[in-house]
Amino acid sequence: MTSAHGTSAYEGYRHRHLLGIEGLTATEILFLLDLSDGYVAVNRSEDKKKDLLDGRTVINLFFESSTRTRTSFELAAKRLGADVINMSVAWSSIKKGETLIDTAMTLNAMHPDVLVVRHPDSGAVQLLSEKMNCAVINGGDGSHEHPTQALLDALTIRRRLGTIEGLQIAICGDIAHSRVARSNIHLLTTLGARVRLIAPPTLMPSSIERMGVETFTDMRKGLAGCDIVMMLRLQTERMQGSYVPSTREYFHFFGLDHEKLQAAKPNALIMHPGPMNRGVEIDSALADDIHRSVIREQVEMGVAVRMACLETLNHNLHLARSQQEQAAQ
Ligand code: CP
Questions:
Q1: Which of 146, 160, 230, 246 has its CA 20 to 30 A from that of 96?
Q2: What is the pLDDT of residue 9?
Q3: Neighbours of 250 (CB within 10 A)
Q4: Per-residue pLDDT tens for 164-175?
């Protein structure tokens, strides 16, 4: 089988699911990035529609709000020809007390091919994947992982700077509650970047240096010499109590603006996974500065990455099924 743009096989990524970046090899990550790269051109062309997922069903099951992830998975699946069901938890039987596992078993009985799940609890997507016969993609679980976000961030960086290896990358803000930070640390260190985390002590997980990163509580010191500055929002929905004195004081010390950015390399790029809180973790003018900010590009790369992930997992699922059928004959 060949992919939409001529890559010959899917040996580069053999897994049934995509639950996290932790544990993936550089080869597996690069395979997904290379496949995604081809989809950027497809998405910029007149003819975006492919038939690789014709007759397949993708279910988006989101237990938390989302603009980017849910929309881009839907768009990605439709551009590949799949039928897409967006399950709104607010209107599902979860509201009547049905458990996560019973919901999963119910969806499983309808024979979907891919299930994309976002859930507020770390580990919930892994648990659910163990009950499903289809491929499962983690669309973000608690403060654990958000693998497709890290892949789209890496694709954005690689297309801008040509490589990830050897870059100095700062991830700044609410590290403690951020699944985006965790997935990015795994991915960027696996591909040979040097990663710095910048946060107030209350938002810096203890012993996080074990992930192979440097930590800073001073924004200017942490930004010194960085190629990429990745900003994170304060995830107040995951906080119990107060982690910062006020958003005004937080912006003063940890909000990125043109003045603090001078500590980084002269052409350092600014990233943000969204949603942004302007004036809290990032200055509004900097977020919109087309010479520094690649935030809109990140969104564009999200569709390409999700097409590559859907294509690969769909292929792996149906290859495994046909091998099982052959073995049973
Ligand atoms: N980056 C991200 O996950 O955004 P959404 O919450 O809008 O999906």
A1: 146
A2: 65
A3: 20
A4: 999 999 999 999
Give residue 294 CA to ligand 1 midpoint distance, Å: 16
For the CA of 140, the nearest atom of ligand 1: 3
Name which residue sits closest to atom 6 of ligand 1, judged by CA.
66
DSSP string, 19-68: --STT--HHHHHHHHHHHHHHHHHHHSS-----TTTT-EEEEEESS--SH
Question: Is 246 exposed, middle or buried (CB count within 10 Å of its CB: 0-12, 13-18, 19+)?
Answer: exposed
Closest CA to 42 of 308, 226, 287, 292: 308
What contacts 146, CB < 8 A, 6 or more positions away?
A: 69, 138, 139, 140, 179, 180, 182, 183, 273
| DSSP per-residue codes, 92-158 | SGGGGT--HHHHHHHHHTT--SEEEEEESSTTHHHHHHTT-SSEEEEEEETTTB-HHHHHHHHHHHH
Q: Ligand 1 atom 4: the closest Cα is on which residue?
A: 68
DSSP state of 162: S
CA of 143 to the centre of ligand 1 (A): 13
Question: What is the DSSP secondary structure assignment for residue 256, as one 8-state letter?
Answer: B
Considering the entire predicted model, what is its pTM?
0.95
Do 184 and 228 meet the contact criterion of CB atoms below 8 Å apart?
no
pLDDT digits (tens, 9 = 90+) for 262-301: 999 999 999 999 999 999 999 999 999 999 999 999 999 9
Place of tokens 């499962």: 136
